[in-house]
Amino acid sequence: MEIIVKKSFPVTGMSCASCASSVESMLKSQAGVVTASVNFAASNVWVEYNSGVVNPGKLKETVQSIGYDLIIDEHATHEQEEIALLEAVILKQATIRASLLTIPIVVIGMFFMNMPFANWIMLVLATPVVFWYGRRFFTTAFKQIRHGKTNMDTLVALSTGIAYFFSLFNTVFPHILMYGENHAPVYFEASAVIIVFILLGRLLEEKAKANTSSAIKKLMGLQADTVTLLSEDGTESVQAISTVQFGNKLRVKPGERIPVDGEVVDGASFVDESSITGESLPVEKLAGNKVFAGTINQKGSFVITAQKVGSDTLLARIIRMVQEAQGSKPPVQKLVDKVASVFVPVVIGLSVVTFIVWMLLGGQNALPQALLAMVSVLIIACPCALGLATPTAIMVGIGKGAENGILIKDADGLEQAHLVDTLVLDKTGTITEGKPAVTDWIWKTDNVDASKSILLSIESQSEHPLADSVTRELKKEGVQSMPIDHFESITGRGVVASVQETKYAVGNELLMKESGIIITQEDKQAADTLQEQAKTVLYFGGDGLILAVIAIADQIKSTSFAAIESLKKSGIEIHMLTGDNEHTASSVARQTGIANYKAGFLPGDKADYIKSLQQEGKVVAMVGDGINDSQAMAQANVSIAMGNGSDIAMDVAKMTIVSSNLGSISSAIKLSKQTIRTIRQNLFWAFIYNIIGIPIAAGLLYPFMGFMLSPMIAGAAMAMSSVSVVSNSLRLKFVKFDINN
User: How does pLDDT run across 336-373, given as a tens digit for each residue?
Assistant: First the structure.
């Protein structure tokens, strides 16, 4: 039976882009693996595999065979952190101890070469540096070669090994390779210093890489560990979060994190939802309102009913989406991976060519010069910076988005967003609130309080959505209902009822006429004015007279006006599509300043409209919140779901705006542009570094300036190139967004 599973596994032991490429290619070659994608910066791999053919244990063995390891325990988050911390401690200790042994080697090599037994002292000091503190380079390189692969460790092992064994030969047999009156040179200091610089570079690189995943750590830190559980008899007890089940009632006290997604059933408070939505202002929560795991209750206390727990909560889903997105690869990274996979063999070839050229043209000192140039080329050309250029920027960019309530599904969506020149907006739930609300009350009676009570009593019995809007508004005002004698719903017109032997009606103009209720010219003018504003009008009449004219509308979000204006100023063309009528569509378009709109559109019409825009050469983003938008969103170049919408829309979308604030779309596009700019900067410097560094290391400047690059300097330059690329990516953390624009 074929069951395709997609899982993420932490990978340990990777040190460069070629390592990631090796792990990826080995996993892809394993029977039953559909695809594998390694993120070097995040030190993990997403594997899609047929569980009937291969299992995680087999995947682990495959990765171990080339010198790395896979953590397959699903509950090993802490294990991964412990391994990372332990490796950091070991790396730090190795760097310090190797440095202490290397310093005297450098001092002797530079100032005391003529002292007795200088070479032997350096040999004794360099041996543990190269073969103990640098042993991993050799063991990993050997495992790679056994499988016909190469990586950074191959370059380090070759360069330091050549320098060490050449020096060892000249120490043991000092007179065989003599040049004039001098003994043959030794390069113990070069081999030791290279190891130290690479260890130091990795230490700095790991610290910098750890900062790129801070967004995930922050999100995980929002998860509560314990809850206050209310039993059926009303007693409270503190329980582990893992014990909570659907339907449990939980007490949330002031200052506590809400543990699960649920609904308030008792009490009220303000909740800080900024960690999820990016919105800075606390949101009032009353009975019937939804609350989400990870948000912070402020001063009040309330009871919630658990509706989504564990991995089903919005917070867990956000964490999962961010993790998957950070592990995904944009098209540019796939090209970089191809370059990285052939880079090391090419560098080894260049180093051999360098050696041969120096042997032919180097004159009296050909051999030592050839070895120096060869070692320098091997060291300086390490593809670490190349491998870190894209994933670090993607990780920081996606993490930054998550902190601001912008969930990015994959790197491709992030890369595409900066090209968007046309934005198509669904009306309902995107530009508007997505739920009808009472906007106007025009009372035609002196006894308003009593009339409100009667109206609430009647509308509470109705199942029509417009009636819900009326009852919700009246309950907010604290109006109390009263008993009614008779109630009847009349399809397409409204409802009629009797209260204390008086007949009342709530509905349209036709119902009023049928119920014998007179609509005056003044009433009609008020209704016409409201309808011109794209509002639905309800009449409330009783005892033959109109008591109130009520206007209901799906209100435009307060944030939509500024957001649309901001998008237009940035040069993006705005279109609005809606299934609503022409009257309502034109009113919303006029109020928001949208010139291009279409009314009465079915789901298929929206997709066709986007296709026509794409045929004009436009890069289209579609923003929606419902199932009816999913077809159009799938057609668009970039699909954006509003967070209060359907799960289907969010599954289709490449981006999700958790807060449903249109202002976040400008922020998402800005984030995309900043991230792509950072990736380009990183790739430029990574390539330029190698394009300039390799010829200099090979000795190109020697005929003109007499300059030969020391392998020690090459090692330092290589280490700093990786750190500089990661540091450039971390600058994305400081990009400022105003999602309330």
Answer: 666 766 777 888 888 899 989 988 887 777 887 888 88
Burial 615-654 (b: 16+ CB within 10 A, else e): eeebbbbbbbbbebbbbbbebbbbbbbbbebbeebbebbb
- Residue 128's identity, in one-letter code, is P
Active site residue 410: no
Q: With contact defined as beta carbons under 8 Å apart, do 201 and 719 qualify?
A: yes
Q: Where residue 741 falls among pLDDT bands split at 50, 70, 90? A: very low
CA distance 515 to 508: 11
Task: Judge contact between 592 and 556, C-beta under 8 A.
Answer: yes
> Dihedrals φ, ψ of 6, to 5°?
-120, 120
Q: CA angle 663-667-672, nearest 5°?
A: 145
Q: Where is average pLDDT lowest: 89-98, 238-247, 603-612, 705-714? A: 705-714
Indicate if the pLDDT at residue 403 is higher than 50. Answer: yes
Task: Give the integer Cα–Cα distance in Å for 255 and 260.
Answer: 15
Nearest to 6 by CA among 480, 486, 327: 327
DSSP 3-state of 172: helix
Residues 6+ apart with CB under 8 A from 695: none
Do the Cβ atoms of 585 and 387 come closer than 8 Å? no
Long-range contacts of 513-519 (CB under 8 A, 24+ apart): 515/541, 516/544, 517/541, 517/542, 517/544, 517/545, 517/546, 518/544, 518/545, 518/546, 519/546
Angle between the 152-172 and 17-28 helix axes, to the nearest 10 degrees? 120
Contact yes or no for 412/639 (Cβ under 8 A)? no
Question: Quick one: three-class SS letters along 82-141?
Answer: HHHHHHHHHHHHHHHHHHHHHHHHHHHHHHCCCCCCHHHHHHHHHHHHHHHHCHHHHHHH
Give the residue-averaged pLDDT of 610-628. 85
Answer left, alpha or beta for residue 492, where phi above 0 means left and psi between -120 and 50 means alpha: left
String of DSSP letters for 610-623: HHHHHHTT--EEEE
Please tell me whether residue 573 adopts helix, strand or coil conformation: strand
Q: Is the dihedral of CA 565, 566, 569, 572 positive or negative?
A: negative
- The SS3 assignment for 421 reads coil
* Residue 428: closest CA among 661, 624, 605, 161: 624
Distances from the Cα of 566 to the Cα of 585, 587, 589, 593, angstroms: 21, 20, 16, 11
Q: Where are the alpha helices (DSSP H) in 362-422?
A: 366-380, 384-403, 411-417
Question: Does residue 266 contact residue 303 with C-beta atoms inside 8 Å?
Answer: yes
Q: Is the dihedral of CA 452, 456, 458, 463 positive or negative?
A: positive
Q: What is the pLDDT of residues 248-289, one digit of tens each?
A: 899 998 888 888 889 999 888 888 877 676 565 677 888 888
Give yes or no for a contact between 308 and 261, defined as CB atoms under 8 angstroms apart.
Answer: yes
Of the candidates 581, 618, 621, 616, the residue with the CA atom closest to the CA atom of residue 597 = 581
Amino acid at 700: L
Q: Within the chain, what is the greatest distance between any pair of CA atoms?
A: 127
Report whether 682 contacts 393 (CB < 8 A). Answer: yes
Whether the Cβ atoms of residue 493 and residue 511 lie closer than 8 Å to each other: yes
* Catalytic position from the list 426, 554, 580, 629: 426
Q: What's this model's pTM, rounded to 2 decimal places? A: 0.67
**If residue 12 lies in a helix (H) or strand (E), which one and from where to where?**
strand 4-12
For the chain, which domains are there? 223-256+261-308 (2.70.150.10), 416-432+557-657 (3.40.50.1000), 437-553 (3.40.1110.10)
Place of tokens 């049928």: 514
Contacts with 705 (C-beta within 8 Å, 6 or more apart), sequence order: none
Instruction: Give yes or no for a contact between 547 and 540, defined as CB atoms under 8 angstroms apart.
Output: yes
State both tokens at 124. Answer: 């004794």
